[in-house]
Structures
1.
Amino acid sequence: MQITVTVNGTAHTREVEPRLLLVHFLRDELRLTGTHWGCDTSNCGVCVVQLDGQPVKSCTVLAVMADGREVRTVEGLARGAELDPIQQGFSDKHGLQCGFCTPGMMMTCRALLDRNPDPSDTEIRVAISGQICRCTGYENIVRSVHAAAEIERAAQEVHQ
Amino acid sequence: MQVPAQFDYERATGVAHAIALLTRYGPESRLVAGGHSLIPMMKLRIANPETLIDINDLDELKGISIASADGADALRIGAMVRHTELLESPLAVEHFPILVDAERVIADPVVRNRGTIGGSLCQADPSEDLSAAFTALHAVAVIEGADGRREVSAREFHTGPYQTVVGDAEILVEVRVPIRPGSGSAYEKVERRVGDWAVAAGGAALWLDADTITEVGIGLTAVGAEHFCAAQAEDYLRGGPVTEERFVEAGRIAAEHVRPTADQRGPEDYKRHLAGELTTRALRRAAARAQHGTEA
């Protein structure tokens, strides 16, 4: 069937089988391979994207269910060469080593900061509790999110 | 790579349309809400619906509110309410903290953004948390079909593992929890790791008049409790005083009547022990909340 999904602000129309999962639609149909595909069982969280602003595990969403809706992926974070604060935070605080979990982590943490500009350690850890990182022990991810929050606070003060 | 078998997809625009689609496509069609139980089962080919009917657009099934009828108030929870929404609901915190306790330990935050209350109940997993919580609260499920709506007690909603009273051409539209004064409620769960299904879990709701228990509900999950209910322990407590000794005894009675099975989450005797201990702990916390407020 024909679906139109807006991904990172651009509407994409494709003919798909109803059984196609959103993660494969993004990776194979749209060639947006920043969204990773891991456990396939909604446990690991590497496939997290935002669907209408909410982080979801795209291995457990059908592409047809995203018809007419908005998806934001890791490719939609940076504006040109300018990194999103969450990306800058992960870079500054070494929130990754191998990078496999990173796109999903950043999409969840981006949504967290959008709702809560100054999350506590616990709030960050709860937010990412459905996602697995085998490199950092999560410590640097928590630091990265704090760093991103600080970058955003500093930017706001400049604006005010 | 896990891929579901082929199926047809329809998107319902309203409850009546969903029922019409279920009627047209018959028993091999299934409703999909959040999809976080059904889609994994379809990927494993345990579920092979011929038609999937998407009810995510059904605004009639959304929202948490207070419904008043015949002078009595009830908390109304739409079937399409996502777990995150119930977890963060001020109405749930105020009236039935057991629901917030339970939601906090259901899966993980990203799954909770998608999974729904109605989907969890209709999936009817024997380890599902809200089934026990709604049993404890004496909740009522509202089911709609072509002939109109009917109400079924949460205690009669499940007919067995993965089976409910919802007919092939019916849809669960909401859950109602009667609001009565003097209530306190709590949920206790033991899991192997964060977000896992329960090894065992139990919820308790108490309605007190001074120190007397006028009504009580105890729901247990993952331990083979009939209808997710510890009816004998409820009978023991109803009408008596709030005391620590009686809560311990109620736990003992609850443990006596469950029928857990050994699996990778634990042996039978351990689950039976947990059923009793978690019943006592939930009762203790429910009583404290009834007497001193939700912060207890």
2.
Amino acid sequence: MILQAKKITLSPLFKDISFDIEQGQHACILGPSGSGKSTLLKILLGGQSVDSGEILIHDQSPDECGWHQWRGQVAYIPQEAPLGIGTVREALLLPFEFKVHKHNTPNDETMRAQLKALGLQDKHLEQTTNKLSGGEKQRVAIARALLLGKKIFIADEATSALDKDSKAKVIEALMKAEHTIISVSHDDDWIERCTQNIQLGGEA
Amino acid sequence: MNFDIPIERMIWVYAALIVPVGIFYALKMPALSKDLLMAVAKMTVQLIFIAFYLVVLFDLNNLWLNLAWLVVMVLIANWTILGRTKMPKKAFFFPVLIGLLSGTALIASLFIGLLIQPEPWFDARYLIPLIGMILGNSMQGNVIVLERFYHAMEQRREEYLSYVFMGATDFEAARPFLREALSAALAPTIAMIGTTGIVFLPGMMTGQILAGADPTEAVKYQIMILIGIAIAVLISTLLSTLISLRAYQRQ
């Protein structure tokens, strides 16, 4: 089991929420607004404490390995990823300044290849991030998460600003068999491609 | 060749204040008028006090009296920083104090111990204006850095958390904000260093030249001061931010 939640309770939002996500599953948290979809992602990242319950990655809880180590195992794609004020290259390299990711630092070639895989171009590497469109920014954030080389992804609305073509490329790059994903999304194309649903808010 | 200004002629510089007051009146900005006049009044009282105090200090030139005065200067600088940045006084007093003391002590020992080497080393004529200049600049730097940094940490909480969620340590997640704040504080100093001599003559050099010193002498002091200020500002702002950050993140 890659990612597990056991009887998470956070009053008044959750009572005994449990789920197992197996290797290669692409899960999407569903539920009406206000049902706590983003809060659940925050719990998985240690941004929200719970009343009771446990979360596990590879059978290990964050209490056992420490939050820092725990977060080092996942690639997080925030809804509005901070890209800084510099070039796309600087934005892509930002998390590699962190000790947990330093050893994975990619070279220009790898970064260009990743940008291309998401429908961006070589020249984007030198561009400043404030010149990018919303969809381009989102793809840079996703390229950055992919470059981390992790097998587990936590994605908050990863495709919200994308057109059909780029969305297809993003889904193809993220939803690989070796990737395990837990996500929140309002995008039907994304939800359709997910292999597992986690329903919140009582509706079955 | 030294033209002292007779005290009665000082009236003209105060009379010149009618110009800004008139402009503020025309622009319907009475608050700024009041602020300016209050600031000038405060400055006048402070400088008169300092003039007499310095005369006494220079005459006595006592080690302990000089050091006591330095302590007062540091505390006032600290107090001003905390007041202007509206930081919680209790939590920020010691971090800012350590920052100010470290930056100032380092540069002061460089100036006094290596460059000027006055006899005695605690000669008030050197120690007090030099440290005053370093402290004044460190004070401005600290106001900018602390304000910018903690404002960003509050306003851009989501961004900070994104870094944490990406695996950053507390310090690593704060580092982008620290960089922005430091460059905002140092950019003016660096720009000033680059344009000094062509665009403007700094106050100290102007003062020395007006008081009759040889320009080459004034230039040496100016180079020393500008480099020293840049280093002291960097050290004091960096330390006060780093030390206060630990307390801030613990709460």
3.
Amino acid sequence: MISEEEQKTSKIPVWDLPDVPKGKLPPHLELQRTRVLCTFDAPTHTENIRYSGAYASMGVDNSLRLEDFRNNFKVEVIKLTEDDMEFDMIGIDAAIANAFRRILIAELPTMAIEKVFIANNTSVVQDEVLAHRLGLIPLKVDPRLFNYMSENDEPNERNTIVFKLHVRCERGSPRIKVKSNELKWLPNGSEFIRSTEKSTADSTSKTKTYTSFSCGQDSLPEFSDNPIAPKHDDIIIAKLGPGQEIELEAHAVKGMGKTHAKWSPVATAWYRMLPEVVLLQEIEDERAEELVKKCPVNVFDIEDIGKGRKRATVARPRSCTLCRECIRGDDWDKLVALRRVKDHFIFTIESTGALPPEVLFTEAVKILEDKCERVITELS
Amino acid sequence: MVVREDDPVLFNDLQEKGLDIDKQALAAPVKNAVDKFQLIPEFLKVRGLVKQHLDSFNYFVRTQIKKIVQANDLITSRIDPNIYLRYKDVRIGEPSIIIDGVTEKLTPQKCRLSDMTYAAPIYVNIEYITGSNASKATQMKRDVIIGRMPIMLRSSCCILYGKDEEELARYGECPLDPGGYFIIKGTEKVILIQEQLSKNRIIIDTDKKGCVQASVTSSTEMTKTKTVIRVEKEKIYLHLNQFTSKVPIMIVLKAMGMESDQEVVQMIGRDPRYSELLLPSIEDCVKESVHTQHQALEFLEQKVKKLPFSTGTDKEGRALSILRDLFLANIPVRENNFRPKCIYVAVMLRRMMEAMLNKDAMDDKDYVGNKRLELSGQLLSLLFEDLFKTMNDEARKTIDTILTKPIRASRFDTSQHIVKDSITVGLERTLSTGNWDVKRFKMHRKGMTQVVARLSYIGTVGHMTKISPQFEKSRKVSGPRALQPSQWGMLCPCDTPEGEACGLVKNLALMTHVTTDDEEGPLISLCYSLGVEDLELLSGEELHMPNSYLVILNGLILGKHRRPQRFANAMRKLRRAGKIGEFVSIFVNEKQRCVYIASDGGRVCRPLIIADKGVSRIKDHHMKELRDGVRTFDSFLKEGLIEYLDVNEENNALIALYEEDAKEGTTHIEIEPFTILGVCAGLIPYPHHNQSPRNTYQCAMGKQAMGNIAYNQLCRMDTLIYLLVYPQRPLLTTRTIELVNYDKLGAGQNATVAVMSYSGYDIEDAIVMNKSSLDRGFGRCIVMKKMSAISQRYENGTSDRIIRPSREGYEAERMQILDDDGLASPGQIIRPHDIYINKESPIVTRGAVTSPMGLPDSAYKPSRQTYKGPEGETAVVDRVALCSDRNNNLCIKFMIRHTRRPEVGDKFSSRHGQKGVCGTIVQQEDFPFSERGICPDLIMNPHGFPSRMTVGKMIELLGGKAGVSCGRFHYGSAFGEPSGHADKVDAISETLVNHGFSYNGKDFLYSGITGEPLQAYIFMGPIYYQKLKHMVLDKMHARGSGPRVMITRQPTEGRSRNGGLRVGEMERDCLIAYGASMLIYERLMLSSDPFEVQVCRKCGLLGYYNYKLKTGICSTCKNGENISTMKLPYACKLLFQELQAMNIIPRLKLTEG
């Protein structure tokens, strides 16, 4: 008894401690390096340790090897629909995943209505508000087929898409809703005649409109069997009372989400780190039931371990929303640990419809590539 | 509520099912407590939000005006008493205007647009004499118009009265507009509710020196006087304006026939302490050797103020007539019977003595029960009475002058001499200036009307409930500003402005009603038949018998009653049965041993549920009938389930907050506790969790929030309208919001807020905004300004003209937006310096016209009007309206619309008095995002919370978050948790957890910049944010060089004049202390008003520069020998010259520099 007591309290000399295996981090450091620990009060160890010599004292090389990256990097598509996409990106740094997200939101170009020529608007919606609403309508058109229009450019078939909207609510009829399907594509450009200052001088020339298309866009092969239209037909633009009328022409140009959110190709794009739920101890019977009941998203399951005893297991860690119910109160945080895997990203892209999400992502990769290219050339 | 606690399953069930809660909760069997909430919407349905104004005006129009006309119905000529004109009847017609002999009906919207007054003709039926001398004939005339009365919107005279939504829409009116205001010359004017000390009541208080005094402000139809009885050095004196100095009260009593001192003592009460206090006064009286009534009157005669133009003939009667007519004028003296007055004085003395012996008996002037609210009807009736009397006097005068003339051309007709305009003009002018100058009633008040605040819907409604104070704002007193316990349920405890008017300007609570006058006659006879012993029959001794109470009706002592409680109960029973007016209050004052019955106007009262021995009279089946529409609020009143209590009667009631709390002695139960707040404070969710000043701040800010003004907001032509492009209804609502229709005309947007620090541009309450949110329309607003132009017609027959713009030439560019008619056309984009009306005025506007057929073009000079707006911004001409103004000139109004998106420096606020400016605008990709991809709309710094203690805002965030997750609007009514009108935090947390959020509302967020998770969970969710009207664009100002003031040549002042920025005294002090002399020199002179002067070194005076001789010359020395040139601020030179002009010679002594 006494000897045991002594053994426990007696100090162990440092040199008697077991050696840390070289080339491998001790488990707690490894945990901190690869996981975000979501404790009850705050997430800890959220940062990525990028410095190659961070663990040099322990003989661990923290540098990233291209070889390793190639071997470990994985992309798994979980869900892909017309507009939405969810995929896992594994083995990559948060900075790069974030770069994709940022590019998707702000730097991928799309087409959006920028200029609105209002010929007549007797509705209650003010001109500016109407124009703003039109601008936010997503258009189903591949922006890669168009050029940017710079300040001095004439609008032509390569940089401008023209839509027409002409709706009238007849007197005596009930109120009508103007929806986005009323936006009619004008492949031949603007139909509004430009009243030039000296219209009498060159009356011989073709009447000038607000665009100078050299050919109709519908004659171009890209659009011949794929007419340009708003992505959704049922977006309400305005409501018209009897006798009210809207007549306008909307010019869409290419732009980037940086300038205005209407050019953002995604409704939103984001990622989350892969949740990891660990049971630090065996949780059995009532406690297990309690745990299962606690989680609103059914992360835990109950497993029969015979003799009528039950044990909690982590069945669906991926659906964890980090509500932290399972670690709330009564020392539950000693039983369950919530973590995030730092190099596993569940990436979601919700496209607005201009391009399918998978194309958006590849485009984003290309832009990042371009940027890297540029940095390299600038540096060398 | 007990049910809820008993039955958590049901409660949770209801919570989950969301919107079904109403139907199910209401259909569910309730065990003991009845959900009385439904009464409030029912109450507001019958009452509207501004019933007090409407009731008051309706009373004036229906009753008061008839009384006034009846009281002054006869105009008799002084020359020939047989010639008279008698008003038979008076009534107010429909709002209309007579143009060129054609009567045209008016609608309020038409009046607003074309600057007219919404007024209706006042019709009278008259009987009068035509002819004179021998050939007289009595004639009758019906519907003679004597003037036009401005009509309160939605009152019984208004065409909008009782109209449904569709009809209102047809009139161009907003169905949610509360009415209660007037339209005078196109502007909407409210007559503010005026707070006053009650009239005809004894108020015991102390004067500045601490002497106890009893004062009565008497107000009758005839006169208004103030009587003060004050104790000075133990002796009691009367102070009355008509006496030159104070008068011993005993002498006054003697003058009124109370010659026996014993009787006086008896009347006051036989308590020896009272006699002791009275003794010095009696001694004083003896010292003056006044013993009889005659002596007393003689004594008083000495003290009577000599009128400047007194005739002196009826001199001996003066003192008596003052005592009869002016001293305590509210007590009528019939056939020189002064006894009621003596008793009244005795009661006053007794109460004073009580107060001297016991300070608690002192009256509190700030007590709401001692106050009366004067409403538009009362104020208008005063004004009308004055104008009507003036008109009658004028008519009599003209009749007399005509009758004195020996020869008259036409047959005499009395009815011809009523002047119509004086009433019309008088009413209109008073209402538009707000200056009540009624000499007849010694009334000179300013600022009684205000232009209706149309900044936001809630501001409009809040304006109608505003009560303006009786005191001047400058007085530094704390008493009247403090929150009175008696304000409970009557006046909003939150809604008061900050600063000088703090606590003085108040607002009505949601359920408050202000009474109108009620007939006294039936009440008096009722009191007598219920056993009140008449005053006339009582001796002084009997007056203050123990166990008998005085009965006082509206300040008039009726008599005494031996069983006051029984009497009061009987009266109340009659009131509940509807036999006497529902607003009559019966108040048994145990301390003063009086029963006060009040039926006068201006008392504040509120409805309460009656309980018998703690059991509510309202049962489940009543509420069910209400829900089924079988019952109305009025039927509750009629059946005696609910009654109105005023502040005084509340003292006799034991009011339980909830039915469960009711005990044996409970007499009433509150309907809902959140009704103690007013309209503005009702918007705040969970106000009972906030620090109280925050609620007050929000009340002030809610009125500045942009949003929807009214349904007809786009048809209005106000000078300035602020609108939000995409207003929303708050996710976290309150019952008040629904009751006042704030959910239909909201002023704000639900923004997803993350409470965290970000970028350093969020210090001092600044908020960081998401650029993409702004791109998508968050906080976008429309500012509309009215510009108007008048095509004037001049006295010589010429007039302005609006001509076709020149399409060529150097001004063509500025005239681009003009149509061919010379006016800017709607929809055009207008930039600063653009001409919006191409108007020309004749050069000669006076004297005879040179040519009969129009003027040549050369006789006109251009008087175009140009748009001045912020440089670099474009606005749009929204609407152009043409109408003719009152002088029949063409008036053109332009509404200029400017759509703005939020920018750095624009002011925003949540509903918890947490205002802040936009500190920076950040790209969406830099914003943090949550695990679900949610990106906040704005980021608020957490430092805003600890010192402000706005816990309500945090609960709003939680509730909003739960609301968006489960799809049900959550509630946060004040004190609503026990009754289920506010969601409890526990329930909200549960909803959050069920939808996968943390119970505390904190989310796991990733940084948008680094991509790594943030090292803290972030409190994030939707909060209703208001955009306030203060925007950078309207305020930013800078100038280099610019305009200067003519007289001093210094830069002008103020942004509107493009003025300079002043280096003030304090800035100057800093520069002096720093020793930056050259900087001072530059700022104060070179950049301001440098001026070169010629100074004579000899005489030190300023000379001038002679350009011919090219030298400076001193005008005093008459030579140019000792002239130096130097620089001086022009203002300094001006000062010298001005000093010289007043014979002070400033001399400059120059030394070599």
